[in-house]
Amino acid sequence: MDLGTKLFRQTLLLLAGNRAAAAAAQRYGLKLGAGRFVAGLTLSEALTEMAELNRKRIAVTADHLGEGVRESAEASAYAEAYMQLLDGIHDRGLDAGVSLKPTQMGLALDPEAAYAHIRDIVRHAGEHRLFVCIDMENSPFTDATLAIVRKLHTEGLTGVGTVLQAYLRRSMDDCRRLTQERVVLRLVKGAYQEAPSIAYPHKREVDEQFKQLIRHRLDSGVFTAIATHDAAIIDWTCAYAARKGIQRSAYEFQMLYGVASTLQERLAQEGYGVRCYVPYGQSWYPYFVRRLAERPANVWFILKNW
Description:
PRODH_bac_arc; flavoprotein; EC 1.5.5.2; oxidoreductase; Proline_oxidase
């Protein structure tokens, strides 16, 4: 990554957490171009998009957007929105699960209350036989997020997994432990700004650890989601699995709504498990800016089509 691109990405990531910028962006709604990456502002809009993806043999992980709440009432409202999301998925008979962020449930405000919200959601999902993924946020919340998942499992709530980010130096150790505990994982490269002391700063290092994580999980037989749009990583994974005789039912590819749609459809048609991460809701701004930061070409696409 050249210096200009790095500075551009850092600036966007700073803006992702800027509430003044978020408030300004909200006035324009999805007209800024976020509609490419966000499935709508309402649950109804999102459910319609999920059904269309299912029609193409693509499963869904639905995310009611929101993070870093400042009041307990916000967390409670998000928890209720997830209950409605789970009911909507069940009522429509969709092939879908949900993802949620711990800070959205108030982790930074009241960890015990946040855990209670998450536990209620996971229990309700279990009633509908749906899966919950606890998203991984930036590094200050890594240990707490893993602790939440482990505690849920000890309570018998095993229909829940989490995410490991390949750019964090600790992730291989976390992967080994979670694999022994048979926790379902989504593997990603990572989209937050982290210090070089805890995160690999170079793409080649991130890619190498990503492959090591994938290899370890595929060899283990514990179900794994490989979340990437990197065609080279996808091809490497398919070749490795074929060479080792690993069944396609042991893993799936996950990609973002509005990104690499043709690739998603092709893999699904070839018989691979594919799941699309479908975000929706009023709090779309931080998510949108992180998508722009991941790939500067997305910015030029938005400007060209605005």
